[in-house]
Amino acid sequence: MMNDVEFEAWCCHLSLSDEAINEIQKTRSSEPSRLVDGGKKSVSGRFPSLKMGRTIQFESHQNELALIYKLEFDHDVLEYWDQPPTIYLEYLSKSGRRNRHPHTPDFFVIRRNSAGWEECKTEQELLRLTEKSPNRWTRIEVNSAWSCPPGQEYAQQFGLYYAVRSSAEINWIFVENFIWLEDYFTHKALEVKKVLVCRIQALVRAEPGITLNEIYQHVGEATADDLNILIVTRQVFVDLEKYLIFLPEQVKVFADQDTYDHYKLITFVEAPTVLDSRKLDITIGKIIDWDGVSWTIINTGETSITLSRPDGECSTLTNKAFEALARDGKIIGLLQISEVSSSEVEEFWRRASKRDQEVAYSRVKELEPFLNEERPRKELNRTQRRWLSKYLKAEKLVGNGIVGLFPNYQNRGWRRDGIEPEVQRLMEQHVEDHYETVKQESVRHAYRMFKVICHEKGYKPPSYESYRLAINKRPIHEQIEKRMGARAAYSEEDFHWYLYREETPAHGRRPFQICHMDCTLVDVELLSEIMLYLGLDPKELRGQAEMGRAYVITLMDAYSRKVLANYMTFDPPSYRSVMMVLRICVDKWRRLPQIIVVDRGSEFDNVYFDVLLAHYRITKKQRPSAKPRNGSVMECLFGIADQEFWHNLMGNTQIMKSVRQVTKKVDPKNNAVWTLARLYLFFRIYCDEIYDTSPHPAIRMSPRDTFRIGLERSGLRGHTLISPEEFKYWSMPEPRDRGGQRQVTAKGVKIHYIWYWHESFKTIRRRSRVVKVDVRFDPFDITVAYAYVDGEWVRCRPKRLSELEILSGRSEKEMLTAAEEIRRLNKLQGRDFIDVTDKKLAEFFKHVEMAETALSTAWRDAKKKIAIQHWRDVERQIIHALIEESEIEPETNHLLRLLNLPTPQADTTSNHELNDGDFSTDGFDNEYEFDLNIDLNAKPFEPLEVW
Fold first, then answer.
1. Which range marks the domain in which residue 352 is found?
2. Are strands 161-166 and 146-147 parallel, antiparallel or unpaired?
3. Is 80 exceeded by the pLDDT of residue 187?
4. Could you give the count of Cα atoms lying within 13 Å of 326 in the half-sphere of its Cβ?
5. Which strands, in side-by-side order, build the sheet including 674-675?
6. 3-state helix, strand, coil in the chain (%, to 5)
7. Whether residue 706 is found in the same domain as residue 777
8. What's the whole-model pTM score?
């Protein structure tokens, strides 16, 4: 991105007018004129541009995103801006009416020698728009490109350009290569050992066009990372628009682009049109005569044909030259075959049913004596003479007489249309206008109405069956959409079982390239860990310990189908649970996805999430609403987990689908035995040890093996590894207002009603009176905040130490809920000035704790927002302890000290251990080896020595 000096130099270089400079500056200084939305079908998102130092919006990941990749890689492009300020287009409509309306192009691109607006459209959309607005969209006949005359007219007044980019121009090979190499386009210094660089460059100079596989064989120490770095830094050259990097056996490597250009001039053979097999017999083994010498065709390729003489000498001709010699008669011996090609014969066989083939073979057997002249043809009866005539005719035209003996039973039937054309058109129109409406009329009712219309017009109405067949002939997707809406018709949309070659794969080419994140509600009713731990009377406990169902949010690698991270909480999905999943992923793998696919939920559409993705250069894709097929990777996992895990647990909610059949005995709430911590622990074991090692039907391998092989083949990409400590700061949100900054005062910095302090604030206040610092806070503990002071993040504490103990462990959501309650109480007391301070929050929570002294009574009597949220946060802290794998004391009182709860009078002398035959974690990773003594067969209301 250019600075002011470079921009002025660029303007002088192009001799731009003042009006053009002002127009460009308006684009460079303004925010995007609108936020894009992919609509019902397109996948939209944001691309973190290294060239621009900001995120770039795209409305379609198969059109606009492909152009973004091209602009990002093109060295001729200096800047490109998404959704520039609106311009006005003037043109004549199809009817001749003059139109003038605002238009927002997709991009404004600044190149070294030009600048202008660029609009992206699919080829199909442009063809449709040409018929609708022929004066706005036109095709250039010379190169089949597209143009927008009114856009060009607007741009020319500034000396700029307006271009239309069609999806037909996209080079999908380059797109896949860019995605494969994107991790290596970075400001970090990526280095390869000098010894390896010298050996590889010497090898490439000695053998231009050597493949990547051959380089790996000659230079055994070279890795995929080394070659990828050399390609990106242009220390070796690969044509990224021709060769796919992930196919090393096909990728040809050169010393530089000049060498590659010379290589093309020497070896490139023009590929003519493929020889017409309908006119020339060019099969291998065919003997031809060329200039009085017999030659044998020994190879037929896409661009050339190889011939061999009897003495062993070979000669290669291009297809174009061979076709010209055959056309001029210099090559003879090529049989001219019939007008019907072999492909058409195959079409006959493909359309013929098994019965047709049996009948044809039986007729051939009857004709064999006459064809072999064993019997005179005068003995043929009339039917056999007709068969023989068809056989000889087919043999002459197609080269296979049996084709003429197919009975073609499918062509039998009534040949005349029994309904008059006017009535047929009237019936089809009536179906479209009256049956296919939101009223959802029945077929019989619509037919009655149609009969009335026919009698009024003097037509004989068709039968009810004819009307029903006319309905069935209509497109079913369009019909359901008109009657029941788009969501009901979604199941009838075309399903793409595979992708065409020119498109990029939906699930990527390597691990961590594309990952899906989604959340779902667990189909199991849960109990409170703390209430069970207190060992209260089961009869009194039932109903008080019910926590409901939890949410599980999962991050999955689309390539290998491996579950990278998951998190479980009672809170509805929010940015807090999203950040927690990413934090778990970094703790476990030390890296994040290159592209992350999410739905349009509010937990994924917030500034905290977008800032985090932009910082780590992660492309965000949002799939269309109510389109579950776009997230089939996650939906498949949820379905498998339901069948293999959730629905096999006590207290599962399958029966609630038929709620009228639920009785007290089978009610999931009355059969609940699981707690959040135990369920989360075993779900992690299931994902990492059961699901991960089982063959996946989509990839025919286990996710673990696919993941391991993919990492080895694509390179470890060590420069993308992330420090968990660093990520912890970035995964913490910043306040939404004032750009995430706070002014340092004598009290410190104020975040969400609470004053935080650090000793470094004294130092920076001595330098200047007005000092602002970047701040972040822990959404799970409001007593923890960080400020960026003198180049490092320092941890701040609440300034009132007396309130630290009361507020410790309280979440942001709990604090905001309490603040809302304080405002409501102030309003009820008639106070006009509502002020929420840290002191009032502490006093409020103190009263709540006093009310919770008797826990069994508190849960029944204090079911308010703040109490419910507090107990959910208590359960969450247990989950976080499991995630962090901290050293957990086995003593009974440790958990209660951690949660500031009174110590129960329970028997802690007994030691609950796993009995023989119980579920064992032997063989699992160390991730699940806790110092826990858990009796999994214990009754749900017995005290468990969890900690």
1. 342-411
2. unpaired
3. yes
4. 20
5. 546-548, 526-527, 674-675
6. 45, 15, 40
7. no
8. 0.71
Distance CA 880, CA 885 (A): 8
Closest Cα partner for 911 from 933, 887, 931?
A: 933
Identify the residue with better confidence: 50 or 402.
50
Both tokens of 332, joined, read 């003879």
User: How many structural domains does the chain have?
Assistant: 7
Give one DSSP letter per residue of 202-215, joined into a string. Answer: HHHHHSTTEEHHHH
Q: How far is CA 639 from the centre of its chain?
A: 19
Q: Report in angstroms the alpha-carbon separations of 698 from 308, 508, 632, 692, 703.
A: 47, 14, 11, 13, 10
Kind and range of the H or E run holding 728:
helix 724-730
Nearest partner of 110 among 35, 153, 188, 51, judged by Cα? 51
Question: Quick one: three-class SS letters along 97-130?
Answer: CEEEEEECCCEEEEECCCEEEEEEECHHHHHHHH
The string over 342-372, giving b where at least 16 C-beta atoms fall within 10 Å of a residue's C-beta and e elsewhere, is eeebeebeeebeeebeebbeebeeebeebee
Judge whether 741 and 775 are in contact, CB under 8 Å: yes
The answer on 739 and 719 residing in a single domain is: no
The H or E element containing residue 772 is strand 772-777
> What are 894-910's pLDDT values in tens digits?
333 433 444 444 333 33
Kindly give, in sequence order, each residue whose CB lies less than 8 Å from that of residue 612, ignoring residues fewer than 6 positions away.
Answer: 579, 582, 730, 731
Nearest to 671 by CA among 654, 650, 656, 648: 650
Share the mean pLDDT of the chain.
80
Does an H or E element contain 317, and which?
A: strand 314-318
Report pLDDT digits (tens) over 795-844: 898 876 566 666 777 777 777 777 766 666 666 555 544 456 666 666 66
The dihedrals phi and psi of 852, each to the nearest 5 degrees, come to -100, 15
Of 200 and 311, more confident:
200
Q: Is the dihedral of CA 458, 459, 460, 462 positive or negative?
A: negative
Comparing CA positions, the residue from 657, 643, 703, 651 lying closest to residue 679 is: 651
Q: Could you write out the DSSP letters of every residue in 903-936?
A: PP---------PPTTS---TTS-GGG--S----T
Is 149 inside a domain boundary? yes
Q: Which of 568, 567, 575, 587 is nearest to 612 (CA)?
A: 575
More confident residue, 47 or 406: 47
**Strand 526-527 relative to strand 210-211, pairing:** unpaired
Q: How far apart are CA 848 and CA 833, in angstroms?
A: 24
Report the distance separating Cα 417 and Cα 380, nearest Å. 38
Residue 905 lies in a domain: no
Q: Exposed e or buried b for every residue in 699-725, given b needs 16+ CB within 10 A?
A: eeebbbbbbeebbeebbebeebebeee
Who contacts 283 (Cβ-Cβ below 8 Å, separation ≥6)?
297, 300
Structure confidence at residue 540 (pLDDT): 56
776 φ, ψ (degrees, to nearest 5): -140, 155
Pair (83, 196) in one structural domain: no
Three-state DSSP at 159 gives: coil
Please list, residue by residue across 789-825, b when 16 or more beta carbons sit within 10 angstroms of its beta carbon and e when fewer do: beeebeebebbbeebeebbebbbbbbbebbbebbeee
Same domain, 678 and 756: no
Mean pLDDT score, 223-228: 92
Orientation angle between helical segments 865-884 and 838-851, nearest 10 degrees? 90
Note whether 67 and 88 are same-domain residues.
yes
Task: List pLDDT tens digits, range 722-765.
Answer: 998 889 888 888 887 777 889 999 889 988 778 889 999 988 88
Q: Specify the CATH number for the domain of residue 299.
A: 2.30.30
SS3 readout for 372-440: CCCCCHHHCCHHHHHHHHHHHHHHHHCCCHHHHHCCCHHHCCCCCCCCCHHHHHHHHHHHHHHHCCCCC
Q: Is 520 helix (H, G, I), strand (E, B) or coil?
A: strand
| CATH code, 219 | 1.10.10
Residue with the two structure tokens 């949100």:
733
Report the alpha-carbon distance of residue 893 to residue 943 in Å, rounded: 13
Tell me how far the alpha carbon of residue 606 is from its chain's centroid.
19
- Give yes or no: residues 482 and 586 share one domain: no
